[in-house]
Description:
- There is one protein chain.
- The strands form 4 sheets. This protein has an 8-stranded mixed sheet with strand order 5-6-9-1-10-11-12-13. A 3-stranded antiparallel sheet has the order 4-3-14, with no helix packed on it. The protein has a two-stranded antiparallel ribbon with strand order 2-15.
- It is built from 16 helices and 15 strands.
- The longest helix is centred in the middle third of the chain and has 20 residues, at 234-253.
- Helices cover 39% and strands 20% of the residues.
- It has 492 residues and is an alpha+beta fold.
- Bound molecules: zinc ion.
- Zinc ion binds next to helix 1.
- Zinc ion (ZN) binds at residues 22, 25, 27, 39-40, 42-43, 162.
Amino acid sequence: MTNNWETIIGLEVHAQLNTESKIFCGCSTRFGDEPNANTCPVCLGLPGALPVLNRRVIELGARAALALGLHVNDVSIFARKNYFYPDLPKGYQISQYDQPFSANGTLEIMTADRDEAGHAHDWKPMTINITRLHLEEDAGKNVHEGLPDVDRFSYIDLNRAGTPLAEIVTEPDFRSSWQAYDYVNHVRRALQWVGASEADMEKGNLRCEANVSVRRKGDIKFGTKVELKNLNSVRFMQKAIEFEVERHIRTLEEGGHLVQETLLWDERLNETRPMRSKEEAHDYRYFPEPDLPPLVVSSEFVQQVRQAMPELPGPRAKRFSEQFGLSFADASQLTGERSLADYYEAAVEASGGNARGTANWIRSELLRELENAGLTAGKSPVPAAELGALVRMIDEGKISGKQGKEVLSEMFASGKSAAAIVEERGMAQVSDIGEIDRVIDEVIAASPNQLEQYRAGKETLFGFFVGQVMKASKGKANPQVVNERLKEKLKA
Ligand SMILES: [Zn+2]
């Protein structure tokens, strides 16, 4: 039934640019301050106050655009978007309209199908058309909770008014909620990577809205669309889209009609509900902002921004595969965050160049510890150099891989170095051939029957001898050396 329908999704992402001060005044953008503490005549919209563009906004806007593979326009124009709402004291928002900061780009993302449990499989590239990226100011916030008399009064906090945003709008290119999910994650990682935005949805500095409709396969005309708002995490966005797609298909198959409307996601009820509407088919009457000149961005400026940017995640993953011989999946995982990619490279160096071994230790052991502790690689209690040192000790046969796991988990808990833990626990492996030979001779001398049977062809007894030698050495003998020497000695 679902197979007869095609889903059409377009996305708008608002990312707060990571500046210290607001876009058109010097007020702080700090989060969590006393309400209305960070305000001035400009962001309060007092008559006669004039906006001045914050240069850092242009730099971070350019970083955001370049990180998404977009071109920065030489000239863009700020425009007034007129509407009335209590959190917008000027009666208009300064945004950009027909000449935005950046427009008409394409972005390649990786996207995957999901199984019933939500696990990704079959990652493949997909090209998304980006309609525009423009710069604008945020509005303030109406507060309806947690204050006296909220049943009778609305409160307004204008600390957020004038915070710089980059709005990134796509064409209706997504055909499933998971493609939308993969895209927003891609954008989030890219913006964080270049330091353009903290892009943390829980703090509200990355917000997204989705336009969703369905049509019968083969139809050219779009169906009735709804706009989804209040999507506080990428997962909620995915669920909300899924909910709407199912509702649309069900309604249409039952012969019902859909209404174009704005819906909010209710994360407690797991369903959408109509927004008590301020926005019905607005005419914003955009016009160029008379108090700001056109924004002219020179190609030299863009070039400087580009040169100051770190290597981007896509190229870095590619380099990891080529330089370190990692699979695509491993390289992608290790470039999931910039701090992790930096950690990995530093650890490889400290390990003496064991790129694959280091990747395995990070992927199988360290990431699990970090996840349990709710930390990122940048905050790991085990520094990259120490993880590298551990990999090296294992490679050099000082400790076994199994001991390595124990050591790592204690390093994580105590912050001690690998060398200190190995020393304290008396773990150092015995790799000295003379010492191992002596133990083997003793074991063989003590097991004449087994020796006879082994030499008569019962080769399964080899494991018995290994076990006896390991036991006699209290587990410290290097198993590889034991194997080699035992084979030699049992032959004779
Ligand atoms: Zn201000």
